[in-house]
Amino acid sequence: MDNPTMLIAVGIGAFGFVVAVGMFLRELSPSTTEDRLAVLTGQKSARKSGVGGVVKKEVLQEGMTGVTNTLGKYAGRLGNVNLFFEQANAPFGFDIFLLVSVGAGVLGFAIALAANAPFALWPICALFFAAMPYFWLSFRRKRRFKSFARQMPDAMELIGRALRSGHSLASGLHVVVEEMPEPICTEFTMAYEQQKLGVPLEKALKSMLLRMPNLDLKFFVTAVAIQRQSGGDLAEVLDKIGYVVRERFKIMGQVQALTGEGRISGIVLMALPVGLFLTVYYLSPDYIMLLFTHPTGRKMAAGAIVLQILGAYSIKKIIDIKI
Fold this sequence. Notes:
By secondary structure, the chain is mostly helical. The chain has helices spanning 4-25, 30-40, 46-49, 51-75, 81-87, 94-114, 121-164, 169-179, 184-196, 201-211, 215-230, 234-258, 260-283, 285-288, 290-293, 295-319. It folds into three domains: 4-117, no CATH class; 144-246, Receptor-associated Protein, CATH 1.20.81; 259-319, no CATH class.
């Protein structure tokens, strides 16, 4: 507390150390695997190929995997963690996520100490920084869902044209894989590869629907299942699905324009109390400390937080119009 610069440096150092350990655990590259195969075939020695280093890394990875599996059992009760990471197309696994979250929490705690924040704000600041990786993954997942939804009409049209040209449905999926950008090409690639390996096409599409819970994709999967069982013109159905999706996006654009004022008002109403609190605390710390030292002040602070959450939820419900 007497040396804020030192506290910030310690927090940043701890965060950097945790990230470095996480990156070190992920360094088992294909070249290392090739070196190991060369050692097994007698083409290289273990010392030259660095297999000893690989063994050390594997020991660290196995220890981290045990911790990850233990925590994953508890996290699995709240939902499918692996599916969440897959939907977000995360560049790291659950173990690295834990390390980064802990490092961010330590950094937030150090910043709270360096800023001479009230004691009640120390854990709040640490939890906020620790939750930032989760917020980033949630944002990444939501953005990926939106990109996939916007690409669905074009994908339906491509598959419909392929069917009219005499190609099979699997070939239509391959056209989407070849012509469409991320993220829809990645999801259709997985479905296409699964059916090539012998998985029924309906099951492969249902797996894609599990990864991408999109309403339009559900229509597509249902149409394919019905066409496989009872027949019909699948190309025409796909064209209608694409038309409905495009019209829905037009209506969504109009709704976004009409609710823009409400969204801005919600952002201002949520940010204004926090900004005012930080400003008053910077100008007169003793004045704002009554919220943490006096019993009535603590009740008022808790009530303000609850009302902020209720207000944000109410505004979100008002402007969130389902189409």
